[in-house]
Design brief:
Blueprint: E1 6-7, H1 13-16, E2 22-26, H2 36-45, E3 51-54, H3 76-84, E4 89-92, H4 95-98, H5 100-116, E5 124-132, E6 137-141, E7 146-160, H6 170-177, E8 196-200, E9 204-207, E10 214-231, H7 233-252, H8 264-279
Antiparallel strand pairs: 1-2, 2-9, 3-4, 4-5, 5-10, 6-10, 7-8, 7-9, 7-10
Helix pairs in contact: 2-3, 6-7, 7-8
Length: 291
């Protein structure tokens, strides 16, 4: 793909990217890959093992209350209508990696980001397409990798919080590191004292520092966003330190230093320690050792 898809919004973008919350503009909403017809085709062709279809977050989790939809027998257009009517939301995991025309877009974005900021040094990049209803919301949570949210259709509000106590409890996050299915965190209304809010329109991109807790509320229209995750040596080192701390705390009763406050050398040593713990079968989630 030729032509620029990404435009930086601030003069200090290169220095602040991944170090502070930052907004920029892009042109993904101007290409036809994200209109209803293209999305319907993508839903139908995307591998089923990479397609998540859920009832809206915050509603009943009881299976009998979930919408009954035969995905194999339902057209992509019909599924989009189900989303638009608020019955389901769809996450096409790795859609930007798996489908050639979308992969070309992702490759262009990655190349442009590397030019825009030397802070962007990904080891791996994965990008999916999230399609959600006008009233959908995502609860307070924290991602394990660096994330960029590229908004394409609809309007949504992003609530972003600092990656530090009390917004991110290090002991709580140690549990999340070993739980691959759960990123949700305990929420307290007092956290709103430190919130930074972004109202996102089509063409907005927001990125934030690693492990920044956040939540999302859709405001209007069928919402389509590209959720881009990438891992770096920095995130690997910090996550490894959290994993090592979890073992040190729960198996040995220690109170290790928070990786967000520790020197890089200590975190690197803990990454190696975490790998040793994992090799020894000690990287699970035992209960906290009694004092």
């Amino acid at each position: 793909m030729t032509g620029s898809l990404f435009q930086t919004a601030t003069a200090n973008f290169s220095e602040t990217f991944s170090r502070a919350p930052i907004r920029a503009r892009h042109s993904l909403h101007e290409i036809p890959l994200f209109d209803d017809e293209a999305l319907a085709r993508l839903i139908e062709s995307h591998p089923r093992e990479l397609t998540d279809i859920h009832a809206p977050r915050g509603e009943s989790r009881d299976a009998k209350d979930f919408p009954v939809i035969d995905v194999e027998q339902t057209s992509g257009a019909a599924l989009l209508n189900e989303v638009r009517n608020g019955r389901i939301w769809i996450n096409l995991r790795r859609a930007m990696n798996e489908t050639p025309e979308y992969k070309a877009v992702l490759d262009t974005i990655v190349a442009e980001l590397k030019v825009a900021s030397t802070n962007f040094q990904p080891r791996q990049v994965s990008a999916g397409i999230l399609i959600s209803s006008p009233t959908a919301s995502v609860p307070y949570h924290c991602d394990k990798t660096d994330v960029l949210l590229w908004h394409v259709r609809g309007r949504k509000r992003l609530f972003l919080y600092p990656p530090e106590a009390p917004y991110l409890d290090p002991v709580e996050y140690e549990d999340r590191i070993v739980d691959l299915t759960n990123d949700d965190l305990p929420y307290d209304s007092r956290f709103e004292n430190g919130v930074q809010t972004f109202d996102m329109e089509p063409g907005d991109m927001v990125s934030w520092p690693l492990h920044s807790p956040h939540r999302v509320e859709n405001l209007e229209g069928l919402n389509v966003s590209v959720t881009m995750e990438y891992s770096s040596w920095r995130s690997a080192i910090i996550n490894g330190a959290y994993a090592a701390n979890g073992v040190l705390r729960r198996r040995f009763g220690l109170s290790p230093l928070n990786p967000q406050e520790a020197p890089r050398a200590l975190n690197m040593a803990k990454l190696l320690l975490a790998r040793a713990f994992r090799a020894a079968g000690m990287a699970g989630k035992p209960p906290l050792k009694a004092a």
